[in-house]
């Protein structure tokens, strides 16, 4: 009995002590809030004013999990993320009871199913498509769906390793992003597209120019199949990449050729290419030095602004053209960019893509320049639409981030990514176990390709690249849908000759 009373006394004393500490903390915070001059709310409402900041910070979390409907959230809604999550696990991705998508929203694509689709024995897999016929080593790209550019530095070592190995397992290519070629890109043995950003990380001279010797070193890797000259990306057109100093580790410093621990801000364009003629010179030089296909990546600000590129190609000859053009939509993603550029600059991929495709075809370059589409294309319907619009390939970055376990925490630029994908903090990286993510990356890619093939069969063709604009309808403002080829007819050389 005495022991029990003693325990009660200790608990009572501890409780009173905790209350006392809380009261003392409240008094200290009251004094601090009253005396500080930077925050009017805390000055006028000491202590309780601090909860406003707390609730604002937690708002993203509560909206994502408790308040936003499946199709409401941005930049990607729960339905999109859940599809990727199920696909990456390799489990069934069927749903019940009907669609939750509001198909009366203007711009919604609706695929036109055929009355007589191909029978099972008429199906065909998409064949490899050659890129770079004028390069010494053209690339026969096997997959319509691939991994878009994500730099080592912007994403973590385990993320790069998992993507590289998953890409190899799925038979798709992986774009290195502009951060140079790391050992972890090579580790998986997948096909690689080496991206050259405006800072020329990995292939730069001491003064920031383009090093032919380093280009040759990169090209010597058999798995580096192509080079992509990045002019701009959708999330920040007109502005170079931003890598916070906290992410510039000694290893990343060595790979990129930049100082440790310092913010690295790339130039807003390539100094060597101030005109389209200079750009074609640069493309030709890289292709000659490396012997491999060279293309460009750009966000489109104006379709008319690209016409001089094709005029310059016409003047020189098709052999001087870029081997591919990757079109990034203004809705594209990034780890860090000013909000006005993310929100307001650059044409959406759904507007830019078909217009650039038509421009290419009008100049007779359909079989010479391959078109790659990128920009929030993460689900099979997105990919199928892009192919109907004329894309030869589709790439995704954020879709593959979701396959790695990204929860859209929106902390890519803070080095505090809770899933270990966009951080170099070992505390968070340990959550990303490479061995368990390889299959998820591969399963996601394979599921997208399989379901795009299913859409192709449904509209009445044997494989995806046979899909055309007539196979998809676009919902209009009045709720009705119109065939895409009536809204924006594909270029027809026979009609143009009439």
Please describe the topology of this protein.
Blueprint: H1 2-35, H2 40-44, H3 50-67, H4 78-89, E1 109-111, E2 129-131, E3 139-141, E4 145-147, H5 157-170, E5 173-175, H6 183-187, E6 191-196, H7 212-219, E7 224-230, E8 242-243, H8 250-256, E9 264-265, H9 276-290, E10 294-299, H10 307-316, E11 324-328, H11 339-344, H12 349-362, E12 370-374, H13 380-389, E13 393-396, H14 398-404, H15 426-429, H16 434-459, E14 472-475, E15 481-483, H17 484-487, H18 493-497
Parallel strand pairs: 4-13, 5-6, 6-7, 7-10, 10-11, 11-12, 12-13
Antiparallel strand pairs: 1-14, 2-3, 8-9, 14-15
Helix pairs in contact: 4-14, 4-16, 5-16, 13-16, 14-16
Q: Name the average pLDDT.
A: 86
* Dominant shape: globular
Treating each run of at least 4 consecutive H or I residues as one helix, how many helices? 18
| Span between termini | 106 Å
Low-confidence segments: none
Helicity level: 40-55%
Instruction: Please identify the structural class as seen in this structure.
Output: alpha/beta
User: What does the radius of gyration come to?
Assistant: 26 Å
Biggest sheet, open or closed, and with what strands and sense? 8 strands, parallel
Instruction: For the largest sheet, list the strands in their spatial order.
Output: 4-13-12-11-10-7-6-5
Q: Strand tally, please? A: 15
């Amino acid at each position: 009995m005495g022991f029990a009373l003693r325990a009660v006394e200790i608990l009572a004393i501890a409780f009173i002590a905790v209350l006392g500490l809380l009261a003392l903390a409240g008094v200290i915070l009251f004094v601090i809030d009253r005396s500080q001059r930077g925050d009017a709310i805390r000055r006028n409402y000491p202590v309780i004013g601090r909860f406003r900041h707390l609730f604002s910070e937690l708002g993203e979390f509560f909206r994502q999990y408790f308040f936003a409907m499946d199709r409401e959230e941005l930049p990607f809604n729960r339905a999109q993320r859940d599809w990727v999550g199920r696909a990456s696990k390799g489990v069934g991705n069927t749903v019940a009871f009907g669609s939750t998508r509001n198909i009366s929203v203007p711009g919604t694509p609706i695929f036109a199913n055929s009355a007589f689709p191909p029978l099972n024995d008429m199906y065909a897999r998409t064949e490899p498509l050659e890129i770079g016929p004028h390069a010494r080593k053209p690339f026969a790209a096997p997959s319509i769906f691939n991994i878009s550019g994500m730099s080592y530095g912007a994403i973590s070592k385990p993320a790069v390793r998992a993507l590289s190995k998953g890409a190899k397992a799925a038979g798709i290519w992986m774009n290195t992003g502009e951060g140079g070629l790391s050992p972890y890109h090579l580790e998986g043995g997948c096909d690689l597209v080496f991206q050259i950003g405006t800072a020329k990380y990995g292939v730069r001279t001491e003064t920031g120019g383009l090093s032919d010797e380093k280009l040759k070193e990169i090209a010597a890797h058999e798995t580096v199949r192509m080079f992509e000259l990045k002019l701009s990306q959708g999330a920040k057109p007109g502005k170079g990449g931003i890598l916070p100093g906290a992410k510039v580790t000694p290893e990343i410093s060595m790979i990129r050729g930049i100082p440790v621990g310092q913010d690295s801000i790339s130039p807003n364009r390539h100094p060597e290419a101030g005109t389209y003629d200079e750009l074609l010179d640069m493309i030709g030089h890289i292709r000659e030095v490396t012997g491999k296909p060279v293309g460009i990546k750009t966000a489109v600000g104006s379709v008319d602004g690209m016409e001089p590129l094709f005029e310059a190609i016409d003047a020189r000859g098709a052999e001087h053209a870029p081997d591919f053009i990757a079109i990034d939509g203004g809705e594209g993603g990034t780890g860090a960019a000013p909000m006005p550029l993310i929100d307001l600059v650059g044409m959406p991929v759904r507007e830019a893509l078909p217009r650039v495709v038509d421009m290419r075809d009008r100049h007779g370059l359909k079989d010479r320049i391959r078109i790659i589409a990128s920009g929030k294309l993460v689900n099979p319907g997105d990919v199928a639409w892009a192919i109907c619009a004329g894309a030869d390939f589709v790439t995704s970055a954020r879709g593959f981030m979701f396959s790695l376990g990204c929860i859209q925490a929106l902390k890519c630029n803070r080095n505090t990514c809770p899933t270990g994908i966009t951080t170099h903090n070992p505390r968070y990286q340990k959550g990303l176990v490479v061995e368990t993510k390889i299959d998820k990356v591969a399963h996601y890619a394979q599921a997208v390709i399989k379901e795009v093939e299913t859409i192709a069969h449904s509209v009445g063709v044997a494989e995806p690249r046979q899909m055309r604009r007539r196979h998809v309808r676009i919902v209009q403002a009045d709720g009705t849908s119109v065939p895409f080829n009536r809204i924006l007819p594909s270029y027809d050389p026979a009609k143009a000759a009439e």
